[in-house]
Amino acid sequence: MYKSESIRIPCVIMRSGTSKGIYFLGNHLPSDPQKRDKVILSVFGSPDARQIDGLGGADPLTSKTAIINPSSRPDADVEYTFGQVDIKSSFIDYSSNCGNISSGVGPFAISQGLVKAESPITSVRIHNTNTDKIFEAEVPVSDGIPLSEGNYQIDGVPGKGAKISLNLAGTVGSKTGRLLPTGNPSDILHIKGIGPLKVSMVDAASPMVFVRAHDIGLKGTESPAVIDQNPDILQLLEEIRTEAAVVMGIAPDRNTARQKIRAVPMVAFVAPPTDYENHLTGTTISGDSIDFVSRDMFMQIMHKTYSGTATVCTGCAAVTPGTLVHEVMGASRTSGLIRIGHPGGIIEADMIRNECGIITRAAIGRTARRIMEGYVYVPRRVLETD
Protein backbone atom coordinates (compact mmCIF):
# COMPACT_ATOMS: atom_id res chain seq x y z
CA MET A 1 0.00 0.00 0.00
CA TYR A 2 1.24 3.52 -0.83
CA LYS A 3 2.56 5.34 2.21
CA SER A 4 2.10 9.10 2.10
CA GLU A 5 5.37 11.00 2.25
CA SER A 6 3.80 13.57 4.61
CA ILE A 7 1.82 13.55 7.80
CA ARG A 8 -0.82 16.18 8.52
CA ILE A 9 -1.21 17.89 11.87
CA PRO A 10 -4.14 20.09 12.96
CA CYS A 11 -3.19 23.62 13.91
CA VAL A 12 -4.55 27.14 14.23
CA ILE A 13 -2.82 30.35 13.20
CA MET A 14 -3.73 33.28 15.43
CA ARG A 15 -2.76 36.90 15.57
CA SER A 16 -2.39 37.46 19.29
CA GLY A 17 -1.60 40.96 20.46
CA THR A 18 1.23 42.27 18.28
CA SER A 19 2.56 38.79 17.56
CA LYS A 20 1.39 35.86 15.45
CA GLY A 21 1.66 32.22 16.46
CA ILE A 22 0.82 28.67 15.53
CA TYR A 23 -1.36 26.98 18.17
CA PHE A 24 -1.49 23.22 18.70
CA LEU A 25 -3.40 20.88 20.96
CA GLY A 26 -0.75 18.90 22.80
CA ASN A 27 -2.14 15.50 21.78
CA HIS A 28 -1.71 16.40 18.11
CA LEU A 29 2.07 16.52 18.53
CA PRO A 30 4.52 13.69 19.35
CA SER A 31 4.83 13.02 23.07
CA ASP A 32 8.60 12.67 22.79
CA PRO A 33 10.05 16.20 23.25
CA GLN A 34 12.80 15.74 20.64
CA LYS A 35 10.38 14.49 17.98
CA ARG A 36 7.90 17.21 18.93
CA ASP A 37 10.52 19.91 18.41
CA LYS A 38 11.56 18.44 15.05
CA VAL A 39 7.94 18.62 13.92
CA ILE A 40 7.53 22.21 15.14
CA LEU A 41 10.76 23.31 13.44
CA SER A 42 9.54 21.73 10.20
CA VAL A 43 6.16 23.45 10.53
CA PHE A 44 7.87 26.83 10.79
CA GLY A 45 10.49 26.13 8.14
CA SER A 46 13.45 26.50 10.51
CA PRO A 47 16.34 26.75 10.22
CA ASP A 48 16.18 29.14 7.28
CA ALA A 49 16.47 32.93 7.27
CA ARG A 50 13.28 33.21 5.17
CA GLN A 51 11.48 30.20 6.66
CA ILE A 52 10.40 29.74 3.06
CA ASP A 53 9.41 26.07 3.42
CA GLY A 54 7.14 26.57 6.42
CA LEU A 55 4.59 28.82 8.09
CA GLY A 56 7.05 31.09 9.92
CA GLY A 57 7.18 34.75 8.96
CA ALA A 58 10.98 35.20 9.08
CA ASP A 59 10.64 37.51 12.10
CA PRO A 60 10.87 36.64 15.83
CA LEU A 61 7.42 38.16 16.36
CA THR A 62 5.85 35.68 13.93
CA SER A 63 7.96 32.64 14.81
CA LYS A 64 6.13 31.60 17.97
CA THR A 65 4.16 28.56 19.01
CA ALA A 66 1.68 27.67 21.74
CA ILE A 67 0.95 24.13 22.90
CA ILE A 68 -2.32 23.79 24.83
CA ASN A 69 -3.57 20.90 26.98
CA PRO A 70 -6.30 20.43 29.57
CA SER A 71 -4.86 21.12 33.01
CA SER A 72 -4.59 18.48 35.70
CA ARG A 73 -4.30 21.22 38.33
CA PRO A 74 -7.45 22.17 40.27
CA ASP A 75 -6.54 25.87 40.10
CA ALA A 76 -6.23 26.04 36.30
CA ASP A 77 -8.43 25.29 33.30
CA VAL A 78 -5.72 24.71 30.73
CA GLU A 79 -1.99 24.13 30.52
CA TYR A 80 -0.01 26.24 28.07
CA THR A 81 3.58 25.98 26.86
CA PHE A 82 5.13 28.79 24.84
CA GLY A 83 7.94 28.19 22.36
CA GLN A 84 10.08 30.81 20.63
CA VAL A 85 11.14 29.11 17.41
CA ASP A 86 14.56 30.22 16.28
CA ILE A 87 14.77 31.18 12.63
CA LYS A 88 18.38 30.46 11.77
CA SER A 89 19.06 27.39 13.95
CA SER A 90 17.31 24.20 15.04
CA PHE A 91 16.39 25.59 18.44
CA ILE A 92 13.16 26.30 20.30
CA ASP A 93 13.46 28.44 23.42
CA TYR A 94 11.08 27.37 26.18
CA SER A 95 12.76 29.47 28.87
CA SER A 96 10.04 32.13 29.15
CA ASN A 97 6.44 33.06 28.43
CA CYS A 98 5.08 35.53 25.83
CA GLY A 99 2.34 37.94 26.84
CA ASN A 100 1.06 38.49 23.32
CA ILE A 101 0.80 34.78 22.50
CA SER A 102 -0.79 34.32 25.94
CA SER A 103 -3.69 36.51 24.83
CA GLY A 104 -4.68 33.91 22.25
CA VAL A 105 -4.71 30.98 24.68
CA GLY A 106 -8.13 31.77 26.19
CA PRO A 107 -9.95 32.15 22.85
CA PHE A 108 -8.22 29.03 21.50
CA ALA A 109 -9.16 26.97 24.56
CA ILE A 110 -12.80 28.06 24.34
CA SER A 111 -13.00 27.40 20.59
CA GLN A 112 -11.47 23.94 21.02
CA GLY A 113 -13.97 23.02 23.74
CA LEU A 114 -11.44 22.88 26.56
CA VAL A 115 -13.28 25.60 28.50
CA LYS A 116 -17.04 26.13 28.63
CA ALA A 117 -18.07 29.45 27.09
CA GLU A 118 -20.02 31.82 29.32
CA SER A 119 -21.40 35.09 28.00
CA PRO A 120 -20.51 37.91 28.09
CA ILE A 121 -17.08 37.16 29.62
CA THR A 122 -15.41 33.79 30.07
CA SER A 123 -12.60 33.69 32.59
CA VAL A 124 -9.88 31.21 31.70
CA ARG A 125 -7.28 30.24 34.30
CA ILE A 126 -4.08 29.37 32.48
CA HIS A 127 -1.12 27.46 33.87
CA ASN A 128 2.00 28.49 31.98
CA THR A 129 4.46 25.61 32.12
CA ASN A 130 7.44 27.76 31.10
CA THR A 131 7.27 29.70 34.36
CA ASP A 132 5.03 27.38 36.43
CA LYS A 133 2.79 30.39 37.06
CA ILE A 134 -0.96 30.92 36.68
CA PHE A 135 -2.60 33.92 35.09
CA GLU A 136 -6.17 34.73 34.12
CA ALA A 137 -7.63 35.77 30.78
CA GLU A 138 -11.02 37.45 30.51
CA VAL A 139 -12.36 36.65 27.05
CA PRO A 140 -15.47 38.30 25.55
CA VAL A 141 -17.91 35.67 24.25
CA SER A 142 -21.20 35.68 22.34
CA ASP A 143 -23.33 32.62 21.52
CA GLY A 144 -20.56 30.34 22.75
CA ILE A 145 -17.94 31.82 20.43
CA PRO A 146 -14.97 34.04 21.42
CA LEU A 147 -15.33 37.49 19.89
CA SER A 148 -12.64 39.06 17.75
CA GLU A 149 -14.54 42.17 16.62
CA GLY A 150 -14.78 45.12 18.99
CA ASN A 151 -13.78 48.70 19.76
CA TYR A 152 -10.46 48.16 21.55
CA GLN A 153 -7.33 49.24 19.74
CA ILE A 154 -3.72 48.32 20.47
CA ASP A 155 -0.85 50.14 18.82
CA GLY A 156 1.01 47.97 16.35
CA VAL A 157 -2.12 46.22 15.06
CA PRO A 158 -4.37 47.73 12.35
CA GLY A 159 -8.02 48.16 13.19
CA LYS A 160 -9.84 47.37 16.41
CA GLY A 161 -10.90 44.21 18.19
CA ALA A 162 -12.57 42.72 21.24
CA LYS A 163 -10.61 43.45 24.42
CA ILE A 164 -9.02 40.49 26.19
CA SER A 165 -7.82 41.37 29.68
CA LEU A 166 -4.83 39.48 31.03
CA ASN A 167 -4.07 39.75 34.72
CA LEU A 168 -0.51 38.50 35.15
CA ALA A 169 0.03 39.47 38.79
CA GLY A 170 0.47 35.78 39.54
CA THR A 171 3.57 35.66 37.33
CA VAL A 172 5.78 37.71 39.66
CA GLY A 173 9.05 35.81 40.07
CA SER A 174 8.46 33.92 36.83
CA LYS A 175 12.03 32.56 36.58
CA THR A 176 13.77 33.55 39.79
CA GLY A 177 10.99 33.35 42.37
CA ARG A 178 11.30 37.02 43.31
CA LEU A 179 10.22 40.37 41.89
CA LEU A 180 13.73 41.68 42.59
CA PRO A 181 16.03 38.69 42.01
CA THR A 182 18.98 40.24 43.86
CA GLY A 183 16.81 41.81 46.54
CA ASN A 184 17.80 45.26 45.30
CA PRO A 185 15.84 47.72 43.12
CA SER A 186 19.11 48.61 41.40
CA ASP A 187 22.54 47.04 41.07
CA ILE A 188 25.88 47.66 39.38
CA LEU A 189 26.95 45.31 36.61
CA HIS A 190 30.46 45.33 35.19
CA ILE A 191 30.02 45.31 31.43
CA LYS A 192 32.78 44.64 28.95
CA GLY A 193 33.58 47.80 27.04
CA ILE A 194 31.98 50.33 29.38
CA GLY A 195 32.76 49.19 32.92
CA PRO A 196 30.31 49.64 35.84
CA LEU A 197 26.71 50.18 34.76
CA LYS A 198 23.70 50.83 36.97
CA VAL A 199 20.78 48.55 36.14
CA SER A 200 17.51 47.30 37.59
CA MET A 201 16.78 43.59 37.35
CA VAL A 202 13.11 42.73 37.72
CA ASP A 203 11.20 39.47 37.27
CA ALA A 204 7.48 39.50 36.52
CA ALA A 205 5.84 37.68 33.59
CA SER A 206 9.32 37.58 32.05
CA PRO A 207 12.61 38.67 33.65
CA MET A 208 14.13 41.91 32.41
CA VAL A 209 17.15 44.11 32.95
CA PHE A 210 16.59 47.85 32.62
CA VAL A 211 19.22 50.49 31.83
CA ARG A 212 19.00 54.24 31.37
CA ALA A 213 19.30 55.11 27.71
CA HIS A 214 21.78 57.93 28.26
CA ASP A 215 24.09 55.62 30.24
CA ILE A 216 24.73 53.64 27.05
CA GLY A 217 24.87 56.59 24.68
CA LEU A 218 21.26 56.47 23.46
CA LYS A 219 18.29 58.83 23.56
CA GLY A 220 15.67 56.20 24.29
CA THR A 221 13.52 57.15 21.30
CA GLU A 222 15.47 55.20 18.68
CA SER A 223 13.55 53.18 16.10
CA PRO A 224 14.13 49.44 15.53
CA ALA A 225 15.97 50.20 12.27
CA VAL A 226 18.46 52.47 14.05
CA ILE A 227 19.30 49.90 16.71
CA ASP A 228 19.17 46.77 14.56
CA GLN A 229 21.64 48.26 12.08
CA ASN A 230 24.16 49.18 14.77
CA PRO A 231 26.32 46.12 15.53
CA ASP A 232 28.19 47.89 18.33
CA ILE A 233 25.06 48.71 20.32
CA LEU A 234 23.62 45.24 19.65
CA GLN A 235 26.77 43.69 21.06
CA LEU A 236 26.66 45.98 24.09
CA LEU A 237 23.03 45.14 24.81
CA GLU A 238 23.79 41.43 24.50
CA GLU A 239 26.70 41.86 26.93
CA ILE A 240 24.28 43.45 29.40
CA ARG A 241 21.72 40.68 28.88
CA THR A 242 24.14 37.80 29.36
CA GLU A 243 25.76 39.35 32.42
CA ALA A 244 22.35 39.96 33.97
CA ALA A 245 21.29 36.38 33.18
CA VAL A 246 24.13 35.10 35.35
CA VAL A 247 23.61 37.59 38.19
CA MET A 248 19.85 36.87 38.24
CA GLY A 249 20.53 33.12 38.43
CA ILE A 250 18.83 32.40 35.12
CA ALA A 251 21.98 31.00 33.49
CA PRO A 252 25.06 29.41 35.12
CA ASP A 253 27.42 31.30 32.81
CA ARG A 254 27.42 33.75 29.93
CA ASN A 255 28.04 31.12 27.26
CA THR A 256 24.90 29.26 28.32
CA ALA A 257 22.96 32.53 28.23
CA ARG A 258 24.16 33.17 24.68
CA GLN A 259 23.59 29.69 23.32
CA LYS A 260 20.64 28.18 25.20
CA ILE A 261 18.75 30.94 27.02
CA ARG A 262 18.39 33.56 24.34
CA ALA A 263 14.99 35.04 25.13
CA VAL A 264 15.53 36.12 28.74
CA PRO A 265 16.24 38.30 30.44
CA MET A 266 15.01 40.86 27.98
CA VAL A 267 16.91 44.15 27.92
CA ALA A 268 15.10 47.48 27.91
CA PHE A 269 16.51 50.98 27.86
CA VAL A 270 14.36 53.71 29.34
CA ALA A 271 14.21 57.50 29.30
CA PRO A 272 11.91 60.28 30.56
CA PRO A 273 8.82 61.14 28.49
CA THR A 274 9.41 63.17 25.34
CA ASP A 275 7.94 63.65 21.87
CA TYR A 276 9.09 61.16 19.20
CA GLU A 277 8.04 59.68 15.89
CA ASN A 278 6.01 56.49 15.66
CA HIS A 279 8.09 54.35 13.28
CA LEU A 280 5.00 52.49 12.04
CA THR A 281 2.81 55.46 11.17
CA GLY A 282 5.15 58.46 10.99
CA THR A 283 2.92 60.37 13.41
CA THR A 284 4.19 62.11 16.55
CA ILE A 285 3.73 60.52 19.96
CA SER A 286 3.43 63.30 22.52
CA GLY A 287 5.49 63.15 25.67
CA ASP A 288 2.39 64.33 27.55
CA SER A 289 0.58 61.10 26.63
CA ILE A 290 3.14 58.75 28.24
CA ASP A 291 4.91 58.25 31.56
CA PHE A 292 8.27 57.31 30.02
CA VAL A 293 9.74 55.82 26.87
CA SER A 294 11.15 52.31 26.68
CA ARG A 295 12.69 50.11 24.02
CA ASP A 296 12.55 46.35 24.49
CA MET A 297 15.15 44.04 22.98
CA PHE A 298 13.79 40.62 22.02
CA MET A 299 15.90 37.79 20.62
CA GLN A 300 18.73 40.28 20.05
CA ILE A 301 16.73 42.72 17.92
CA MET A 302 14.45 45.55 18.98
CA HIS A 303 10.79 44.71 19.40
CA LYS A 304 8.77 46.54 16.74
CA THR A 305 6.32 47.57 19.47
CA TYR A 306 6.52 46.21 23.04
CA SER A 307 5.99 42.66 24.23
CA GLY A 308 3.15 41.76 26.57
CA THR A 309 5.32 40.18 29.24
CA ALA A 310 7.71 43.14 29.03
CA THR A 311 4.75 45.45 29.61
CA VAL A 312 3.87 43.62 32.82
CA CYS A 313 7.47 43.54 34.02
CA THR A 314 8.00 47.21 33.13
CA GLY A 315 4.78 48.12 34.92
CA CYS A 316 5.97 46.27 38.02
CA ALA A 317 9.30 48.07 37.83
CA ALA A 318 7.55 51.42 37.41
CA VAL A 319 5.59 51.04 40.67
CA THR A 320 8.58 49.74 42.65
CA PRO A 321 10.49 52.57 44.34
CA GLY A 322 14.24 52.61 43.69
CA THR A 323 14.19 51.05 40.23
CA LEU A 324 15.50 53.00 37.26
CA VAL A 325 12.05 52.81 35.66
CA HIS A 326 10.43 54.37 38.74
CA GLU A 327 13.06 57.10 38.64
CA VAL A 328 12.66 58.02 34.96
CA MET A 329 8.89 58.07 35.40
CA GLY A 330 9.46 60.94 37.80
CA ALA A 331 6.39 60.19 39.89
CA SER A 332 6.00 58.45 43.22
CA ARG A 333 3.01 56.37 42.12
CA THR A 334 2.79 52.76 43.23
CA SER A 335 -0.53 52.00 41.52
CA GLY A 336 -2.56 53.11 38.54
CA LEU A 337 -2.29 53.06 34.77
CA ILE A 338 1.31 53.06 33.55
CA ARG A 339 1.67 54.41 29.99
CA ILE A 340 4.76 53.14 28.18
CA GLY A 341 5.88 54.86 24.98
CA HIS A 342 7.29 52.26 22.57
CA PRO A 343 8.51 52.47 18.95
CA GLY A 344 5.04 51.85 17.51
CA GLY A 345 2.84 53.72 19.96
CA ILE A 346 1.71 53.39 23.56
CA ILE A 347 0.92 50.37 25.71
CA GLU A 348 -0.64 50.49 29.17
CA ALA A 349 -0.26 48.37 32.28
CA ASP A 350 -2.95 48.55 34.97
CA MET A 351 -1.00 48.19 38.20
CA ILE A 352 -1.86 47.82 41.90
CA ARG A 353 0.91 47.49 44.49
CA ASN A 354 -0.46 47.22 48.02
CA GLU A 355 0.90 48.70 51.24
CA CYS A 356 3.02 45.59 51.83
CA GLY A 357 4.75 46.04 48.49
CA ILE A 358 2.95 43.09 46.87
CA ILE A 359 1.77 43.37 43.27
CA THR A 360 -1.91 42.38 43.33
CA ARG A 361 -2.80 43.49 39.80
CA ALA A 362 -0.68 43.65 36.67
CA ALA A 363 -3.11 43.69 33.76
CA ILE A 364 -2.78 44.42 30.06
CA GLY A 365 -5.41 44.65 27.35
CA ARG A 366 -4.88 42.71 24.13
CA THR A 367 -6.87 41.61 21.11
CA ALA A 368 -6.63 38.34 19.20
CA ARG A 369 -8.01 36.91 15.99
CA ARG A 370 -8.23 33.39 14.65
CA ILE A 371 -6.79 33.65 11.14
CA MET A 372 -6.75 30.05 9.92
CA GLU A 373 -7.42 26.54 11.09
CA GLY A 374 -6.64 23.36 9.23
CA TYR A 375 -3.78 20.94 8.65
CA VAL A 376 -0.08 21.61 8.23
CA TYR A 377 1.89 18.99 6.29
CA VAL A 378 5.18 17.73 7.71
CA PRO A 379 7.49 15.41 5.75
CA ARG A 380 7.33 11.91 7.24
CA ARG A 381 11.13 11.72 7.21
CA VAL A 382 11.19 14.36 9.97
CA LEU A 383 9.77 11.79 12.38
CA GLU A 384 11.68 8.85 10.98
CA THR A 385 15.18 10.35 11.34
CA ASP A 386 17.07 10.30 14.62
Count of folded domains: 2
The helix/strand series, from N terminus to C terminus, equals: EEHEEEHHEEEEEEEHHHEEEEEHHEEEEH
* Whole-number mean pLDDT: 95
Taking pLDDT < 50 over at least 5 consecutive residues as the criterion, the unreliable ranges are none
Helix content: 10-25%
- The CATH topology of the largest domain corresponds to Diaminopimelate Epimerase, Chain A, domain 1
Measured by DSSP, the beta-strand proportion falls in 35-45%
Shape: globular
Number of strands: 21
CATH class of the largest domain: Alpha Beta
Question: In words, what does this structure look like?
Answer:
This is PrpF domain-containing protein. The chain is of the alpha+beta class. The chain has 2 domains: 175 residues, Diaminopimelate Epimerase, Chain A, domain 1 (Roll); 178 residues, Diaminopimelate Epimerase, Chain A, domain 1 (Roll), CATH 3.10.310. It is built from 9 helices and 21 strands. The chain has a 19-stranded mixed β-sheet that branches. It has a two-stranded antiparallel sheet with strand order 14-15. The longest helix is centred in the middle third of the chain and has 17 residues. The radius of gyration is 20 Å and the shape is globular. The model has no long low-confidence stretch (mean pLDDT 95).
